[in-house]
Amino acid sequence: MLFSRHKNHLPTPEEALKGRAEPGFTVPDRHTVLGNPLAGPYPEGLVVADFGLGCFWGAERKFWQAPGVWTTLVGYQGGHTENPTYEEVCSGLTGHTEAVRVVFDPTVTSYAALLKLFWESHDPTQGFRQGNDVGTQYRSAIYAHSPEQQSEAESSRASYQSVLTGSGYGEITTEILPAGPFYPAEAYHQQYLDKNPAGYCGIGGTGVSCPIGVAPAEG
């Protein structure tokens, strides 16, 4: 009953679980595939981008496989509860979505390239779900770390909406907001599909190519 009642309702700050001042678990030091540290601070010159596109197991793999990505980690973002647990997020009572933090080298790739991968890796028109995964924690989201990221994300949404509409899809429901606190998920979620290659992956795109031009690498 708890899960079904809150699947399609984002709680207000007053309704959300209160959470805790400190996380109740530790996060591994290094990425199991890329070998770099998971948590910041990151080396000077790298850029952080945050995305939500459904179950973060498959979403993270999409990004760690991309050129120029230095590290990735999964966590919870966009809600109200401090340092939530996975079970709390799945209850729908935190307001968070499952997110992937992507740390990339702008001399090798670009934010535009990551936006293209984001749009093409899921169906951003589904609201509080992604395929068979239903709930507010699976909503599509981009959390911008600068006004430039915000503007670029909004422009990319408009561009992709145009081609989705032409292919018979509805309105994009992706929320694009300034990045707030990012709470890393439990250790077993980090690089889950590297540790469990046959594990569940609910990520699937629309098959519609995103028209965003991949910008030249900066530097």
Automatic annotation (TrEMBL):
Chain ranges of the Peptide methionine sulphoxide reductase MsrA domain: 50-201
Name of protein: Peptide methionine sulfoxide reductase MsrA
Role noted for this protein: Has an important function as a repair enzyme for proteins that have been inactivated by oxidation. Catalyzes the reversible oxidation-reduction of methionine sulfoxide in proteins to methionine.
Domain of life: Bacteria
Alphabetical keyword list: Oxidoreductase
Annotated EC: 1.8.4.11
Gene for this chain: msrA
Catalysed reactions, semicolon-separated: L-methionyl-[protein] + [thioredoxin]-disulfide + H2O = L-methionyl-(S)-S-oxide-[protein] + [thioredoxin]-dithiol; [thioredoxin]-disulfide + L-methionine + H2O = L-methionine (S)-S-oxide + [thioredoxin]-dithiol
Any single GO BP term: cellular response to oxidative stress
PANTHER family on file: MITOCHONDRIAL PEPTIDE METHIONINE SULFOXIDE REDUCTASE
Database matches in InterPro entries: Met_Sox_Rdtase_MsrA_dom (IPR002569), Met_Sox_Rdtase_MsrA_sf (IPR036509), MsrA_MetSO_reductase (IPR050162)
Region ranges (Disordered): 1-24
HAMAP family reported for this sequence: MsrA (MF_01401)
Pfam family, any one: PMSR
Similarity comment text for this entry: Belongs to the MsrA Met sulfoxide reductase family.
